[in-house]
Structure formats: C-alpha cells, structure tokens
Amino acid sequence: xxxxxxxxxxxxxxxxxxxxxxxxxxxxxxxxxxxxxxxxxxxxxxxxxxxxxxxxxxxxxxxxxxxxxxxxxxxxxxxxxxxxxxxxxxxxxxxxxxxxxxxxxxxxxxxxxxxxxxxx
Length: 120
Prior knowledge:
Blueprint: H1 24-27, E1 38-44, H2 53-69, E2 74-80, E3 85-91, H3 96-107, E4 112-113
Antiparallel strand pairs: 1-3, 1-4, 2-3
C-alpha cells in the first residue's frame, strides 16, 4: 500500500476492537449540558460491511463531512459496521432529524433513514 492509499485518520472516535464495547445506551448521552433532552435518528446502510475497505473508508469520509457541517448540533455518532447502522444524537431542533439524514442520503444514496420506505 503506497502512502497515497493510506487511510486518513477518522474524526469520529472509533471504539476499541479488542474489548467488548459498552452498550450504546450506556455510552450515549441522553441530555445536553443544560439538562435538555437530546433527539436521535438511525440510518441503515445496506451491505456496507461487505464492500472493499477503500469504499467503506470513502463512505465514512462522506458521512464525517456531513456531520462536520452540523458540528454544533451533533452530540454523538456511532457507525456500527457489524449491523450497517449509523446512530446520530443531536440537540433537539425542529427538522434536524430529517435535515441531516437528507444530507447524508445525498452523499451516500444507499443510506436509508430507519422507517424510510425504500424506493422501488
């Protein structure tokens, strides 16, 4: 692998692969720093884990770019490649749980908001 092919470090904090991760409900915040409840959404990215590593990294980079645009709103994000699910927790704001998934879906068309009907 040449230096140009070396994957760039991720801005999202990866969980340790050597130890069993704590369940998300224990790691993920429920309230913001002022005690206000947070909101969340999940997206399924079908067959992501089965893609070549370079395509997985490209997809992750696209998601990171979108989440970086919403850095003030996004509190927590977890991409679980074992089940192909992205879980994002944000500060509550009207429309945010549709706005961010639409942006992610524009960049990663196969990403589906949970409960979103699949186009046929």
